[in-house]
Amino acid sequence: MTTLLARGNTALRAGNYEAAIALYSQALAEQPDLGHLLRTNLRLVRQRLLGNNARSAEGLAQYFWRLPLDCLFQRILNAIQLEPEPPNLAATIYSGEQALAALLAQQSILSATPIVVSIIMPTYNRAAILGEAITTVIQQRYPHWELWVCDDGSTDHTAQVVAGLNDSRIQYLPLSKQGAAAARNRGLERARGSLIAYLDSDNYWHPDYLGAIVTLMQKCPGRSSIYFDYFEYHCDDNNIYRLKSFTCPKFNHEQLLERNFIDLNSFAHRRELYDCFGGFDEALPRLQDYDLILKYTWLRDPLHFPYPLNLYQRNAQLQQITTVHQHDQSCETRVSQRVAEQLQSGLPRRHTRRLQRVTILSWDLCRNHFSKAFALAEALSREYEVQLLSFDFFDENVFEPLRTIRPPFETCYLRGKKFPEFFNELDAALEAIHGEILYVVKPRLPSLGLALLANQRYKIPLLLEVNDLETIVNIPDPQAQHVSLALETANWSDPELLIPYSERWSQLLDPLARALPVVLTHNHALDAHFNQRCLYMRNIKDEQIYDPRRFERTHLRAKLGFTPEDRVILFGGLLREHKGVFELLQLLEKLDDPRYKLLFVASQSSPEQAQLIRKKSDKIRVLPPQDRTAMAGINLAADLVILWLNPAIPASHYQMPYKATDALAMGTPIIANDISDFGELGRQGYLRLVPFGDWEGMRTTITEIFNNYTATTRQRLAGQRLFQRQFSYSAARANFELAVNRVLTEPLGILPIAVRFTEAFAEFRQHLK
């Protein structure tokens, strides 16, 4: 039998389809009881031969051949009626199997330590079919798993079925009848794995499902969840299986709010999500999976493997929850209420590892980058004792828009100097630190370097946020290149090292930043720079200030000198050429419409700002730095924010401007180009995308924004929801909780890179004596 199959596949790969058909037919005749292994191959090869689609034929045969001979997943899939065959099914299976094989080939090189997956399976009186679902777990080729069969008060012989499978990795948990959500939660409470997967007793997994989860999550350590496509099939009263669908949409949280397109049996996540945000809502008899998936994809999009690896059946004979409780509308109401509460107050958190004191380190307090450290200190101060420590390197005092704010947290501001005088300031900073954890903003020497010294001295764990590629952030040049230097090769006589915030220190600290246990960022380019291992922490704003309900738009526009007919295009922040400020001037000329006005709000002085002021045009206004309340109002008063970052400048790809946060919060429409995270946000409908320099596309898009009120309103509201989920202070607290949970699961103590840095820094200090 095996020989005939092998010969058939060899003939198929060689393009000899007639021989392949003959060999498959002979194998089927000799062992008809294993016909489920061959019928689909045979039928599809014949179809492809007639349709001359050799690639699909070969792919499908390889797909069925590579599965084990006793594979239950394949047997059930073969039983599904495929007449007529759905379009693209063969191509999807072929592509999926190719992608899966390539993915699993990387598994052995990603981690030498086995990762345990905990599988949660609730069940109630399903003894007749339970064994098949568990069999598809036992048939997983990834062996490091535990299965919690959470028996929700069954009165049949469920316990005997589980015991009869005789696998020590299966844990049977008898419970009183409380519902599937409670049963799942009891399993989650006992789960020991770092990854969690779910399988109901009427679903079936591809034998490489767990292997795919583990490999993808290892490849992207910064992501916390993942979902797969699945075969959905319906079983009628005559036990005839009919395929209904086999693909899922790309992830889009707005679409997820409208309907659930992710099946819990095809969804997995790191345990950290449960540890931080809890499990299932036990008051929901239905939609409990939907509620959990909304919660676990709230802060960051999940990974998506766009190929079906699960069989999901709908069968009225099984008394499934979806059918039994389909008329209970209270579930929809409760889920909607929870979404509204989370938009208002953020995710509910368990606080399993509650800290008391946090020290935030920012390398400088004078410029706009200090805004992030200050905002995070404010956000966390509502739940923690926060200390913000920073240095004044430019003798300008606190960044101007923040000077009048009386912070609700402790500040420790020290002078910024050159070396060797700066050694004394670092020593004073080390003495002043009193947090139980360090949150470092930017991998600069006065922030990350200080944190590494503190870790070596006090064993304080640390988190690093990277929101720019520091080695090129100040180089608006298309030829700029990132350079990383090994600490051991440092030339202590280099005069650049006398400046604590110099590019040379950034080059030396970059490889150290990559070695830290937990790093956070705000866009995918920086995440890629750090090997896909970053958690997310967006550029945040206080939702209590950035609330459109606090302002009256007509009054704000009049105060700024704009009429109701004016169409105000806003740019706020540091006015730099590579950020598209001069393109906005060209746009004004190309629009050639007196209604359009440009409003620039500078965060600090720059040569470009002086050039704009010299224009002296009645269509251009340049305002000095504004405080937060004023900026919130200005964004609401504006009609449009355009963020055209020049893609020829490397630094542009690593930025996510604060002005995007302001616009999202206040519901101001945004146009951007496909750079940083703008591309994905645009494709998900939060903003509009126009390629850099596409003037006609820009003109058309601007016209659509003003003319299509319905579409613009929908996008504005989606953007405000995105702000609440990911860019607000409540989102910052939830992301901080996730990062703290992760760093505290690592072995605590002195980091090896802290030892290396401390020893090297001592050499530098000795050299300057």
UniProtKB/TrEMBL annotation:
Which molecular-function annotations from GO does this UniProt entry contain? glycosyltransferase activity
Endoplasmic reticulum keyword on record = no
InterPro entries xrefs? Glyco_trans_1, Glyco_trans_2-like, Glycosyltransf_2, Nucleotide-diphossugar_trans
Which SUPFAM superfamilies does the record cross-reference, listed alphabetically? Nucleotide-diphospho-sugar transferases, UDP-Glycosyltransferase/glycogen phosphorylase
Mind telling me which CDD domains this protein's record contains? Glyco_tranf_GTA_type (cd00761), GT4_PimA-like (cd03801)
Q: List, for all copies, the residue spans of the domain called Glycosyl transferase family.
A: 553-716
| Protein name in the entry | Glycosyl transferases group 1
Asked if Transferase is a keyword of the record, the answer is: yes
Q: Which residue range or ranges hold the Glycosyltransferase 2-like domain?
A: 118-244
Q: Which keywords has UniProt assigned to this entry?
A: Transferase
